Amino acid sequence: MPDELQWMHPEFAPECLNSGCRAPPMPQCDSACCHCRARGDQSAWPCGLFPSSASFSPPSLSGRIPPWLQGTLLRNGPGMHTVGDSRYNHWFDGLALLHSFTIRDGEVYYRSKYLKSDTYNANVEANRIVVSEFGTMAYPDPCKNIFSKAFSYLSHTIPDFTDNCLINIMRCGEDFYATTETNYMRRINPQTLETLEKTHIHIIDQRTRKPVPTRFYTDAMVVFHHVNAYEEGGCIVFDVITYKDSSLYDLFYLANLNQDFEENSRLTSVPTLRRFAVPLHVDGNAEVGTNLIKVASTTATALKERDDQVYCQPELLLEGLELPQINYTHNGKPYRYVFAAGVQWSPIPTQILKYDTLTKSSLRWGEESCWPAEPLFVPAPGAKDEDDGVILSAIVSTDPQKLPFLLILDAKSFTELARASLAVEMHLDLHGLFIPDADGAARNQATSETEQAPASGCQGPHRPDGAGGLGLP
Ligand SMILES: [Fe+2]
Questions:
Q1: What is the pTM of this model?
Q2: In what ranges is there compositional bias, type Polar residues (predicted)?
Q3: Rounded to the nearest whole angstrom, what is the distance from the C-alpha of residue 402 to the centroid of ligand 1?
C-alpha cells in the first residue's frame, strides 16, 4: 500500500506534494513540481505518490451528481496490518488510513493518506509493531529482548498508549480530529489529510448533577453503535444496534478473516435495531407490573418492579443492519429514517438500506460482489422532508475486474444518481463525515435559483453539524 494516493483538483494542490518539497506544481501535473516529476527514481506517477504497479486514471463517472452536492466525504479506518515482519491480530488494530472524496462541480477527486500518529511513526521507525492495540500485544518488556537497543533509542518516541486514531472523524468548530477509543486524538487537515498535533481528551465530572434514583435494567446484550435518542411522552426513546454476544469482535481477528467467510465467519447473533423507552419519572402510585410507557409509537415496555427498579424490554425494529446513520439535523430529536449497512450472518456489509421507523418498511441497494461502507446522509439545500438529500457510500468490490467506487443514491427513492469508479486500492473503512463546501453550496444555490430546479426553494445552504459522530466500536 503506498503512503498516499490522490487525484486532485488543482486548487487543492498549491504545492508539490512530494515529501519536503514545497515548489509549485507543474501546470500539467496537479501534484508535483517539475523537479520531482523529472526525478529518475520516481516511477509512473509524479513524486511516487501513486503505486508504480497501477495504471492511473481519474475517476470514471457515470450518472449525474446533483449540482448542490459540493464538499468532501472524509473517512477513516484501518489500512495497514503488517509492519516489517510483524502483523496485527485484529482488523480493528490496523494503522489508520484516512481517505476522502471531494465532490466539486460534478466531479470527484480522491485522496488517501496514513495518519502520522506517534504509533505509526514509532512502528515505521522500528520496522515492527512496537505499540499495543486492542487485539495485539506488542512485546511486553522490550528491554529484555533483542530489540533492546532499538527500544532504548526509540523510547522517547513510543507513546504511552496508542494514538492510532482509526475509528472516526470528529468536528470541533473548524477543526477536525481523527479519533479512537483511547484518550488521544489527532488533529488533521481535512483537505490534505496531513496529521497535525496530538490532543488529550479532558473528562469533566459534572458533580452538580445527581443520579436518577431509579435503577433501569434489561437483558444482557452487546452494543457497538447508537442510532438516536429523544424525549417523547415523558420518556426517553433510544434506538441501538444490539447483539446477543460479542461474536462480531471475534470474527474480525485476522486469522478468522483470512479463512473462508462462508464457513468460518458467521455471526452467532445478528445485529438488530431495537427501540428502548425509559420513563423519566416513575409513578409511585403505579402497581408493580405496570407498564410505565404511554407512548403510542413504540411497543417497548418499562415494567415497574419496585419504586426504584424498572425492567425495560425493547421493541425489535429490524434485523440485519449495522453502521447506522440518520439525518443528523434530527439528532436528539424525533426522527423517522435510519440509513445503515445491511448485514446478515457475515460481519461484512453487502447492502445499504433505509429503514422507516414509522411504516416499518425498508428500501435496499445492493450489487453483486460489492461491500458498501457506512452510508452517510447529506441533506439537500432547503430540504423539506427528513429524507430530502443523498446517500454517500464508498464501495469496495471483491471482484478484481470491478473498480471500487463512490456511490451516490437519492435518499428518498434509494435509486442510484451517480457513481465514480476509482483505479485505486481502496480499503473497507469504519466511520467518517461529510464536510460541505460552503463556497460551493453558496455557488450552487445561485445556480439552482437560475435553473429554477423543482426541488429548489432554497433557503440557504444547509450545513449538517458533525454528521457521523455517533459510532464507537
Ligand atoms: Fe464504530
A1: 0.78
A2: 444-453
A3: 27
